[in-house]
Structure formats: C-alpha cells, structure tokens
C-alpha cells in the first residue's frame, strides 16, 4: 500500500473505532454520575452500583439467563457435534438439503422463529414458562456448533482414525480415544458460541418466556423502554466490562493457540 | 452407501428432529395461519382467506414494508462502505491485527439493547449532543435526533456494522497475496489491482456481509421501538403488535412469511454464487 493510502485508511479506521466506543464510554461515565435525572453531571458516586446488587429482579433475571444458556449449550453442543460428524464423514442422499437446513437458523430473522414458536404454543394451549424458551434457543444455536466443529474436522487427519482401527480399536474406542480429543477444541469453541448467543438472545426470549420469567436482556429492554436511568447505566457498564474482559482474555488465548479464526 | 446412509442419519437424527419440530413445523404453521380467517377476539377460523396479504399490501402497511426495506437497505450500504476500508485496514495491520479485531468483537458481542441505549444517552432531548449544542448556543430547542428516519438508520448501522465487518475481514485475510503481486508485476496500478483482483476475490465476503446485515436490519423492532417509542415503524414492530397487541395473527404470520421468503431467496443466491469454503463467512 502507498503511504498516503495507508494514512488515509488509518484515520478512517480510527474514526470507526471512535464511532464504536464513544457511545459506550458515555454509558460508563454516567454510571458514576450522582444525578438521578438525565445527563447533567453533578458529581462522582458509587451509590448506584451498591443499589443494583440489592435488586432482586436483576438477580433472578441473571440466574434465569444462566440457566437457559447452560441448558441450551448442553443440548446444542451434543446435537451439533453429532451432526458435524455425520456431515464430515459421509456422503449420503439428501446431504445438500440437510446442509441448507442447517444454514437457515444462521440467517433466519429471530422474530420469525419467535412468533412461529409462540403460535405453536398458543395453538397447543401450553402455558409459557422459563423452559418454553429452550426450543428456540437451541434451534438457533445448533447450527453454529455444527459449523464450528465441522471446520475443526476439516483440518483433521483421518489417517489417525485408520491407524487406531488398524491397531485393533473398535469404532467406539477410536472415537473416544482419537477423534474426540482432537476435535475437543472445536467442540469447546462451539459450546462457548452457543452459550454467548443464548445469553445475548432477546427476541426469542421476549416472545416465548412466561410473563413473570425475565432474562437479563428482557429485563434490560423493559428498563431501557422507560428511558435513561442510573440503574441501566450501571447494569450496562457491568455487562460491557464483562464482555470486554471475556472477549480479550478468551480471544487472545484462543488466537495464540490458533484455535479460533 | 446404504450403511453410510443409515449411520449418517443416525448421527443427524437428533438435530434434524429438533430443527423440524421447533423450526420447520412452526414456520410452516405460520404459513398456514397467514391464509386463515381472523375471527372475533383474534380467533383463528380455518377458512381460506388472503385477507392478511391484502392488509399487508394495503396503503397502511405497504408504507411500513417499503420504509423497512428502504431504511435497512440504506443502513446495509452504509455498513458496506464503512466496513470494507475498515476491514482492509485491520487485515493489513500486521501484529496489531488480532487486538484490533478483538476490539470489533466487543461491540459485536455486547447486547444490542445496551448499545442502542448508549445512543439514547447521546441523542435524546436532554441528551449529551443536545445539551452541548444548546450550551454553545447553536440551537434553542433540542433536536429530535432519535425520532427521525436518520436516527433509526444510525441505530441500524451502529447495531449491525460488526456483522458486515467480520465476513469482509475474513475474505480479505484469506486473499492470496500472490495474485496482487502478479497483478502489479503485469503492470496494473493499485486502483486497477483493487478493482479487478481484490474486489472480485473478496466478493463472497461482501455478499455474506450484505445478507447477515440486511436480514436483521429489516426485521429488528427494538431500534424503532426504543428510539421513537413506536412513532416510526418497521416490519418487526407490526409483526410484534399483530401477535401481542392486536391479536391479528394472520397479519403477523403473513409478514413473517414474507420475511422468511426474502431470507430463503437471499440464502439461495448466496449458495449459488459461492463455493463451499465461502459458506463459513456467514457464521
């Protein structure tokens, strides 16, 4: 690249980073603002942080989010890994259609999944609760696990499996002693992805949870609708800080080992 | 082959079962509902009717559909124009590459609602921007920054820009640099090399980015909801209200089905024009 082009690209990219981070920065700053109303700075305080940790709604919403994310991750990781093994190993009739089916959850608007499930629940007269959000969460995360594990499998040397078989291991033993340890990093990456997507999912939860069962994003939505408030500033700041730490720590570690793109 | 077939479907059956039961059947059910008749108090009467589609294309909702397509399209194009040079810079920033990419991942993974909230702090009537402009005497009355199509498009761009950056970044990073050298050796200048080599080779990334940005942008309801309090509407708002407020499932189902058709078409186009290794750009 010519130096002038490079300089231009650098300045432009700096602006994009500012565009990303300036709004976030203001949330963080205002979380320490003494004033209860609006955005006028009246002084530094940690008061809102203290009151947030006594908010029982918030604690139950967090627990619900974690519960859903754990259940979703377990189911999607198992189902997605099995599917990836099938798609990697075998050529079979209907493979193209199966692959197409797995790409649908990646691109489908979440509101369509949400209202479709709501309609089914409605017609079956099912009462909504925390677990009625599980089917939707799993449906949109299976594909991500499958694709991540599949990517790992494609860089996998199948002669290792053949060697194990030649040495007398049966299929079951070959899988647990050879295949599984080798694809494990892919399975873990897929599981992390499923966990994060579920934790972050708003629309499907909004439609398919029971009236009293909030998850964190649903609670944030109901708070944000009421406008700017110290509680939301603090809650957002904490979530942003956790994201920052998790992304940097997990990301840098995985990148170092070359496990995630 | 037969044995393979059985084993393959044995491994696939749990996920196919789940996706069929909780995705395919519900969506097909929505398709059926969209052709039924709306009875009293939102009851579903199983008589064939295209009322929901006439309503969807009536002047009232057609305006919302067009305005959703239009705003989502503008936002997607803005994202593309911003994301390409940005991704190009990151992909060529040597040892800083990983760190810069992770700085894109933070907003990517931070909840959309929180990121939209950040703009509410900046743009509302007592917000940072209005306060500064009034203090400096540029304006007397606060500007309705959030309540305008411009505010909505800004929200869409801010919300979905990372979706555009990541696939374009991947495709630029995978680019075989020897093609660029070959092009320059053959006498093409930087502009020509970019237009005739780089751009076509990174096209799958652009296409993937376009799809995964446009689809959520056209179907999202929280941007209009949080920024305008429902004064401006997109398709997502109408679907939500049809199901949760007006009890007009037929209308909501018809609009959902239209969105679904749009998505399947774009997925088919993507699969048609890209190779298997490009597909992972979608994820």
What's the rounded overall pLDDT mean of chain A? 89
> Any idea of the CATH class of the domain at 65-218 in chain A?
Mainly Alpha
Order of helices and strands of chain B: HEEHHHHHHHHHHHH
Specify which chain pair forms the largest interface. Answer: A-B, 95 and 95 residues
Task: Give a verbal description of the structure.
Chain A has helices spanning 3-30, 47-52, 56-89, 95-107, 110-123, 134-154, 159-166, 171-200, 203-208, 216-225, 230-257. Chain A has 261 residues and is mainly α. Chain A has a domain at 65-218: MetI-like fold (Orthogonal Bundle). The longest helix of chain B has 33 residues, at 59-91. Chain B starts with a helix and ends in a 10-residue tail after the last helix. Chain B has 13 helices and two strands; from the N terminus they run αββαααααααααααα. Chain B has one domain (60-282): MetI-like fold, CATH 1.10.3720. Chain B is globular, with a radius of gyration of 23 Å. Helices cover 74% and strands 1% of the residues of chain B. With 283 residues, chain B is an all-alpha fold. The relative contact order of chain B is 0.13. At the A-B interface, helix 1, helix 3, helix 4, helix 5 and helix 6 of A face helix 1, helix 3, helix 4, helix 5 and helix 7 of B.
């Amino acid at each position: 690249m010519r130096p002038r082009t490079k300089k231009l690209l650098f300045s432009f990219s700096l602006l994009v980073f500012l565009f990303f981070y300036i709004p976030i920065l203001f949330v963080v700053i205002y979380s320490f603002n003494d004033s209860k109303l609006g955005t006028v700075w009246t002084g530094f305080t940690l008061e809102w942080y203290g009151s947030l940790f006594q908010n029982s709604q918030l604690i139950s919403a967090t627990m619900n989010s974690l519960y859903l994310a754990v259940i979703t991750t377990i189911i999607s990781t198992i189902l997605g890994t099995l599917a990836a093994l099938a798609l990697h190993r075998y050529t079979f009739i209907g493979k193209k259609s199966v692959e197409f089916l797995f790409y649908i959850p990646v691109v489908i608007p979440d509101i369509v999944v949400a209202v479709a499930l709501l309609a089914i629940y409605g017609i079956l007269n099912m009462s909504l609760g925390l677990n009625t959000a599980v089917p939707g969460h799993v449906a949109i995360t299976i594909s991500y696990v499958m694709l991540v594990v599949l990517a790992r499998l494609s860089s996998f040397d199948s002669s290792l499996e053949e060697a194990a078989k030649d040495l007398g291991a049966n299929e079951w033993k070959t899988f647990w002693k050879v295949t599984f340890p080798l694809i494990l990093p892919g399975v873990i990456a897929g599981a992390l992805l499923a966990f994060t997507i579920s934790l972050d999912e708003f629309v499907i939860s909004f439609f398919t949870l029971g009236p009293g069962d909030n998850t964190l994003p649903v609670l944030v939505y109901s708070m944000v609708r009421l406008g700017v408030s110290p509680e939301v500033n603090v809650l957002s700041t904490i979530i942003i800080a956790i994201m920052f730490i998790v992304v940097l720590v997990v990301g840098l570690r995985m990148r170092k080992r070359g496990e995630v793109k | 082959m037969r044995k393979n077939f059985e084993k393959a479907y044995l491994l696939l059956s749990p996920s196919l079962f789940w996706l069929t039961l909780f995705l395919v059947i519900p969506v097909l059910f929505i398709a059926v509902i969209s052709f039924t008749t709306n009875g009293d108090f939102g009851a579903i009467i199983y008589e064939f009717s295209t009322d929901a589609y006439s309503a969807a294309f009536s002047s009232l909702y057609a305006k919302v559909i067009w305005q959703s397509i239009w705003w989502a399209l503008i936002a997607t194009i803005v994202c593309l124009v911003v994301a390409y040079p940005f991704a190009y810079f990151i992909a060529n920033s040597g040892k800083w590459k990983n760190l810069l990419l992770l700085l894109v991942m933070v907003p990517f993974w931070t909840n959309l609602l929180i990121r939209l909230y950040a703009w509410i702090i900046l743009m509302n009537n007592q917000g940072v921007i209005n306060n500064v402009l009034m203090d400096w005497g540029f304006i007397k009355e606060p500007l309705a920054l959030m309540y305008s199509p411009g505010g909505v498009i800004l929200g869409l761009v801010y919300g979905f820009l990372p979706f555009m950056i990541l696939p374009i970044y991947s495709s630029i990073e995978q680019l075989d640099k020897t093609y660029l050298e070959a092009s320059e050796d053959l006498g093409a200048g930087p502009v020509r090399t970019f237009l005739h080599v780089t751009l076509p080779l990174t096209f799958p990334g652009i296409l993937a980015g376009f799809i995964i940005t446009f689809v959520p942008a056209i179907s999202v309801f929280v941007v209009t909801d949080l920024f305008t309090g429902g004064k401006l509407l997109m398709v997502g708002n109408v679907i939500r209200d049809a199901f949760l407020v007006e009890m007009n499932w037929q209308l909501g189902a018809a609009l959902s089905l239209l969105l679904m058709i749009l998505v399947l078409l774009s997925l088919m186009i993507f699969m048609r024009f890209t190779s298997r290794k490009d597909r992972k750009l979608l994820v």
